Amino acid sequence: MSANPELGVCYYPEHWPEELWVSDAQNMIKNGIKWVRIAEFAWSKIEPDPGIFDWNWLDKIVDILGNSGLKIVMCTPTATPPKWLVDQMPDMVALDKNGQARKFGSRRHYSFSHQGYQKESQRITQAVAERYGQNKFVQAWQTDNEYGCHETTYSWCMSSLSEFRVWLKKKYKNIDELNKSWGNVFWSMEYRSFEEIDLPNLTVTEANPSHNFDFRKFSSDQVKNFNSQQVEIINQNSPGRPVSHNYMGHFVEFDHREVSKNLDIVAWNSYPLGNLQNMQIIAREDKQLINDCYNIGDPDFQSYHHDLYRGMGRLWIMEQQPGPVNWAKYNPVPVDGAVRMWTWEAFAHDAEVVSYFRWRQAPFAQEQMHSALMLRDNTPAVGSLEALQVSKEIQMIELPATQKSEVALLHDYEACWITELDGQTEDFHYTRLMLDFYKSVRVNGGSLDIIGKNDDFNGYKLIIIPSFAHLDANIFKKISTSGAKILAGPRTGIKTVNFQIPENLSLEGLGYQVTRVDALPYALPIEVEWKGKKGQLRVWREHGNSSGISEGNSKDGFPVITSGNQGSYLCGWPDENLLRAIMGEQMISAGLKPVTLPEYLRVRQRGNLLFFTNYGKETIEIPDFFRGEIIMGSKNMKQADVTILKLEN
Ligand code: GAL
């Protein structure tokens, strides 16, 4: 995409008196806003009584916004079904793992599997899409809001149960196949028919992991199905206008790649400070980072998600943190310039639109303490000044199309679920591991693509597989014949696709056969030495037989890395510094030129432009290694600065 990116905002006209609407629209325009997202929680206003629609207010605001020059993202309001609907079919709410109903009074109170609710969701989608599908001001759509938020992917209700049985029958055809695949002979768990199968909750001790694994895949398919029902209706009524959904950061409960197959725009909601506080996955030296970056965010978390989601479709940031939020453990004020820097960072990663959440701070209900572009009294908040600055800056710089990166990181939702279901150490966290590997390339100055198992592996110099438990031989063959150098991380190839241990224990070609796993608390690492460098393997350490070249050693007698005829394998989870050093060497041997960046400086290449961001408190200088003309910012960067450098040809 080479057209210049745009700014947007999330707006809730239903919260405000009509007298404000015209001036709101005008002020948005003055603030450089081009897109406005509306109506994702407005069902009770659109249909106050069953079958009685009130379109007046929505028609009016669509006209006002559109006539002011704003493009509208219209949403389906299915994340907040109204009270009358829940009363009509009380069993539409999800049940939690203990079988307790998740009641009306906030949002997302529905089960994806409830067929009655699916029909209602289609009915309201049809009504909204029919009314606005051809409206010239409605230029894009959003389905629902943040699928899965507040732990709503899984429901342990009767609708889930009956749909799960149907899903299993379709997958296994006969019950013997299921029994075999799950290994139900273990503990006499065999079933005689699909009707005997229950959901994997409330068992005495853990349920069979294969049972759980299938329930996760099923639940993910339910999200996909729910979304595709809406997309189909929107496409019929509003052909040619892109459909989006807004995902979250650090959220893996359903397979986003699958859901995205039905979307044009893959959006996510970026809350750097909230995510940093809530992302303390394991007690680790990140405490330093959390202190250093408490008011600016993790230097890699945002870009990791930009790279993850841009691999699934056209990237938008549907909700961008504009100031302090209200929902994290701690909710600090962002450092001056952070909102601008986050916005530019998204554009550096190909975002077409960054849309701030929200226009004006809500004076009532759950999110009163969440900031917005405007204060309650309608005067601009700090974030709006930074947004305005970006809106001017983006007009001055032509952004080139992005190119394929030289490094790819393989990511897989099912692999993540396996690591959760087969935990062994509660400190193993898939996203944390991915982020560590991702960081290790970035601190060496690299830009990455994050890809899935069905993507094209050709054209990369280095493919990193941080962990992929059930990577099968066919996919591995495609990767290993792509011509890229391969670095696989712990737990790769140690399961079959059916969640069993493979006959030959692990993938061949990486020089290691895993025989035992030392699953550790984060606080008890294994000391290792690799090429004269001391370091640690933490959380996960694999014992095994090396059949290739081994590097590094430790007291436990096993190597740090092995290499076979198809790639290299890390036999544990290295600490940050060790991983950085190992990755630097892997990059060199893949023909790349790593460069050591100052601790909190990051760079991302888009076409012939390099975008630098400084997440650190100290002023730093861009290393001389990078040569070209600075077209925005300067070589010396203060915290939250952005510098754009045009590379010499
Ligand atoms: C998002 C959500 C919004 C709002 C926001 C507050 O998760 O989509 O509706 O709640 O968080 O930060």
What attributes characterize this protein structure?
eight-stranded parallel beta barrel; 31% helix; 26 strands; alpha/beta
How would you describe what is shown here?
The protein has 649 residues and is an alpha/beta fold. Helix content is 31%, strand content 20%. It contains 18 helices and 26 strands. An eight-stranded parallel barrel has the order 1-2-3-4-5-6-7-8, surrounded by six helices. The chain has a seven-stranded mixed sheet with strand order 10-9-11-12-19-18-16. Helix 8 (209-237) packs antiparallel against helix 15 and helix 16 (430-442) packs across helix 18. The relative contact order is 0.09. The protein binds beta-D-galactopyranose.
Query: Share of helix among residues?
Result: 25-40%
User: Which ranges are low-confidence, i.e. pLDDT below 50, for 5 or more consecutive residues?
Assistant: none
**Secondary structural class:** alpha/beta
Give the terminus-to-terminus CA distance: 21 Å
What about the largest sheet?
8 strands, parallel, barrel
The residue-averaged pLDDT reads 96
Unique ligands: beta-D-galactopyranose
Shape: globular
| Total beta-strand segments | 26
Q: Output the radius of gyration.
A: 25 Å
The number of helical elements comes to 18
